Amino acid sequence: MLKRCEIPVCLGVLFTALVGVAACGGDDTGSHTTDAGDADVVAVDTAGPGDTATDTWTPGELGDPCSENVDCASGWCVPSANGLECTAGCESGCPNGWECGQVANQGTDQVFVCVDPTVTLCQPCEVDEDCTAFALGATHRCLDSGPAGRFCGKSCTVGDTQCPSGYTCEPDDGAVEPGAPGQCVPSEGLATCACNALASELELVTVCHVTNAFGTCDGLRWCGSAGLTPCDARVPAVETCNGVDDDCDGELDEGVAGGAACDIVNAHGTCPGVGFCVAGQLDCVGLAAEAEVCDGRDQNCDGVTDEGFPDTDDDGVADCVDEDDDGDGTVDSEDCAPKNAAVSKTAEEVCDGVDNDCDGLTDEEGATLCAPYYRDVDGDGRGDEDVAPRCLCAPDAITSFTVGNAEDCDDLDEDVHPGAPERCNGGDDDCDGQTDEGVQAPCGGCANICIVDNGPGTALPFTPTGANALHVALDTTGALTLAAGQTTGWYRQVVAGWPQGGTHWTVVFVDATLPGAGAATLSVRHRWGASLAALSSAPWTVAAGPYPPANFPLIIDVTAPLIEIELTLNASGGNIPVVRQLSVLGQQVP
Asked: Residue 363 above 50 pLDDT?
């Protein structure tokens, strides 16, 4: 049986019968003596020189750990799955997990004691004999689990329940009929075998292997203090020149080099050579690299010829051996600019700051890569849409052809161009085809003071809805009145001021018919804000009225972009108010 260290002397034993175990040490009790008054108590002499004192100790019972026979009350220390343990005679039967077996000591008669039948089960092994080292005569086998190694089974009979919990009786040689011989193996496979205490104590070993596309390498696994170790086999690899059998086929460095290409490296570069593997070392033979010389040859073996030397046209041929340095199709002896491929009598003028066609002019109008430039007289960055562009290599400040767009609708006014702010001046300042859009007074035109009229015949007719009115309706003329059957109701009108700057609201006018000498009345209140959202949450002023009193129209003092007027209509005795127009006087402020 493979093991990493020497088996303790007390395990030099011999099993017979079912699981026969021969204990080591025989009847030798050393310094231990049996007390005639107590067969279970053994005296051991612990006295030093001249000291007659003694101590007493109690021998181990079945299952107690031991190291030699005298440690046990039965006089037998036997191997078990837990290591060395004391046993007992089996006259009265054995406890669960133990079986009665015959043991023999050198020079003594054979006796029957309780033994562990699973002592070698799942232990690492190499051959069948490793599994019967403590069970001579048994048919335990060393079973192969593949790369994981080989492990001991335990003989059994197919169909019987002889295997420990977690184990299955697998038939030998494929025979599956009941009564056929078999081996107890873990239900989840041999690869799940773990080291028991005895295997760890003996550091038992099994052979394992690692296989991949390059080959198979053998190694070992053993039972250590932390259990079964991983396989220590080398991982097969492609063979290299290193004096090692990389692919584990029994040969060293086979097929490596032997005329294969290799590199010869020095300070000048790397040149190809032919390799030979000798004693694990690669020797490369060939011409070494040299400093590059401008002669059309690759001295430093970098695949480039004459690198580091001028090559004007980058054609891979250095000027020193090139008849046309600039590669423009004209040999140097006939070229007016032999180092510049963009310059020749047959070249086209290109916008590059060079006189490409050798005519004495540089980047003249119409040259290749020119771009259209438009005239910008007023300097606002927008070209005149009514003047054709010129194709130039760069802006021409002298003639004002300086911009790349034709967006200006008035090239004589720098304040008129796309993106310019619209002014209320009767002109199209932002060149969008519209005049004074977004800047006119709320009543139209460019006035800075106006009256905003609301009602029939105006730009803002009354439009009562569920959101801005209650119990009011429009008569046939579009005037505002109470809905049928209602005696009171209200209507709200939002009025916007100037889109630019602020608006100062000063007077509210109401053109209304209030019949009945005060029986039909009208009340007015207002609120203001910078936005519709702010307006909807703003507080209302105290209502003015009811009208008609002598102080109508209503004088107010509000500066805000928006103002909302609320009219409350009240009827009495059949007298119903009618509102024909609501007007607000405002003035633009900076």
From this structure: yes
